[in-house]
Amino acid sequence: MAETPATREQPWPVATVSKKIGDWVARLGAVWIEGEITQWSVSGGNVYGKIKDLSDPATLSFTVWSSVRGKLPANLKQGDRVALLGKPNFWAKGGTLTLQALDIRHVGIGDLLERLERLRAQLASEGLFDRDRKQALPFLPGGIGLITGKDSDAEKDVLRNATLRWPGVVFHVRHAAVQGDRVPGEVVAAIQALDADPRVEVIIIARGGGDFQNLLGFSDERVVRAAAAAATPIVSAIGHEADRPLLDEVADLRASTPTDAAKRVVPDVGEELAMIAQGRARLATRVAQLLRHETERIGSLRARPVLAEPERLVELHSQDLTRWVARGAELALRQVEAAAQHTQELRTRLRALSPSATLDRGYAIAQTADGRVLRDPAEAPAGAGLRLTLAEGVLGATSAGSPAAN
Q1: How many folded domains does the chain comprise?
Q2: What pLDDT is recorded for position 396?
Q3: Is the pTM of this model over 0.70?
Q4: Staple partner for 230: which of 89, 94, 195, 376, CB 3.0–4.6 Å?
Q5: What is the pLDDT of residues 311-338, one digit of tens each?
Q6: Which has the closest alpha carbon to 176: 198, 220, 206?
Q7: Enclosing domain of residue 278
């Protein structure tokens, strides 16, 4: 006979619904599930615990009966990542769902390493680990962001060593879980908050080391991508040498320990002052050498005769000038005398050749009326007018004719 469907007028009893849920759950059978043990309480030889999903906020209760507990690894504890073989069981009386654990095994380290290597390869292919993405740290950051566990040794080491190196350093601390399933969410939130703070110039993520499984949160993809997306330089100081979490690969600087991070981020004021003193000493030495060299050069220049006794140079050239002036005057006088003598000779020769000298001796120059000089008596017929040029003047005359013509 078919069961009557439940209606508002004819609802099913709670026991019926509970029985149906129990039957449906029972049909699921045993199933292997993976997660993190978040509760492990022993009571009366039995274990009552909870297992949480590794990425989503989902939790299931489980029970390990004493008959099964003896077959399980003895070192199971809260925080372990495990694979659990459980048979779902719905308790009708209490209306709760629980898993009856039939077997529990730690998730193999090899499996975890394989997953991490796959994630590492994926992120590397996206360029998140490339060197050209790394940012340089500021020389002396005005504000340093610190993400670490509250009251942890890592926090104390960073603050103490940084303050010893530079007493005026300013920290902006964000506490976050550094182990367990809360690590990714809290570390991502802290990175984003400090990255958005304009006072923070560099961010240190510090943890004091730990075993491989305890560091898994710092290899979470969400943490790695948040660090890669940050505009502020990030220093990874997880402090674990054997197994490097993926945060080390994407960080702008990897420090081996929290103490090393403080030394890498904050300069030593003593060392810096010593470097300044050395620089000033070298500069003073160089300036002193330069001044000494220039002083010696000026002294050498002043020791030269031209600067030591400048009047000697004037006197020397004055004597030369006097000699050359005298020599010049002598040469000029000789030239004048020679020219005067030559002029006199030319004058004498000129006078000797001059018609005036001939006229002075009683000779005359006969010219016709039209000015022609008479050289032949025949050129002046009788009665022709003549002009006679004498040494002291000119006379007019009349030609008497050539004697041969008479």
Answers
A1: 5
A2: 82
A3: no
A4: 195
A5: 777 777 788 888 888 899 999 999 999 9
A6: 206
A7: 271-303
